[in-house]
Design a protein that fits this description.
The chain has 163 residues and is an alpha+beta fold. The protein contains five helices and five strands, in the order ββαβββαααα.
Amino acid sequence: MTKTGGVQCEISLTVNGEPRTVRAYPMDRLLDVLRQQLGLTGTKEGCGEGECGACSVLMDGALVDSCLVPVLQAQGADVVTIEGLGGDARACALQETFLEYGGAQCGICTPGMILAAVHLLREKPEPTTDDIRQGLAGNLCRCTGYVQIFEAVAAAARRGVAR
């Protein structure tokens, strides 16, 4: 029993293309299940309030803050974390532009930024500067001042990363 009086249950979901079943309290955060039970520590906790985007993952194709998602809501969902992008050549090319343009510094926001950029480029393969700003608006970075991140995403788009 938890302090909320819940009981653990089995939750089945697909994580990075692999079917997984976990035992958790229904209101446990998806973030904690990913990090603690599945060992996917690339998803970071920044604020725990859905304000910073460090915990962003793709859930059924939508960009979500995993710190705000009760794990029960992920029942049957397809979840992609930063680790799940490893075999995607387009996502790897995007990561390369982050390195090339200095868009990755301390690393706390980087996984969420990359996932937000992947989501943006899938929706808008040729984004404008305003599209990039809006697409990454839910992600905070204290190191870069954002210019390098925006330039990295724009460069990835010019190189056809999303196509």
